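Look over both lines:
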Amino acid sequence: MADTHTPLVFIVSGPSGSGKSTLVKKLLELPGTMFSVSCTTRPRRSQEDHTSDGEWYNFISPEEFRRMVDRGEFLEYACVFGKHWYGTPRHSHDEARRRGLDLVLEIDVQGADQVKLKLPEAVAIFILPPSSQELEARIRARGQDSEEEIARRLLRARQEIEQYARYDYVVVNDDVERAGREIQAIAQAARCRRASSEAKVREILDSFGGI
C-alpha cells in the first residue's frame, strides 16, 4: 500500500505460546506490509537451520550484537529471560519508509516500550491466550522446554499480560481465524485513520479548485 504518507509501524507482542507469530503472518497477508527481521544471540532451535536466516531472525554472536548496540543500529533491543539478546535493526524501519510499506514488528513488552517512546504513533497490539491453562498446554505441546523453563515462561506470561494496558489493542487468540480477522481489521482501521489525516483532506479539497 505504497502512498505519499509515512508508513505505519505495527507492534505485535504477547506471551510465548500466545500464537503471536501466527497472527503476524495473518497481518503480513495484507498488501503493503513488510516484516522486520530481528537479530538475536540465541542459538537456533532444532527446526531452524542456516536456510532460515533472515526469515524471522538473523542469528548473530553476542560480540556482534554488542557492536551493533554501540553503533546505535537498533531501534530497540532487550535481554529476554536474562539469557539472550533480541533487537530490531533500524535499517528495517528505514527500508519500510523508502519502499512505502507498513512495518510489522514482533517484539516483547520491553521492546514495545522502547519503540513507543521513539515512534509514539506506532500501533501496538497485544495477543492474549484464552487462559493460563491453554497457554501451558500450548507450551508443553511444543516439547522444547524443561519443567523449569515452562514455569519461567508462565511467570513471564503473567508479568507481560499485566502490561496490556500500554497497548492500543488487545486480541484474544482463542480462535486463530477470528483473531486473524481482528488483527487485519485493526491494521485496516489504522490505515483509514491515516488516510483521513489533515494533509490528505486538504489535498482532496484542493482538487476541487475554485468550485
Notes: Strands lie at 9-13, 33-35, 38-40, 57-59, 74-80, 84-89, 102-106, 123-128, 169-172. The mean pLDDT is 90. Residues 176-195 form the longest helix (20 residues). DSSP finds eight helices and nine strands in the chain.
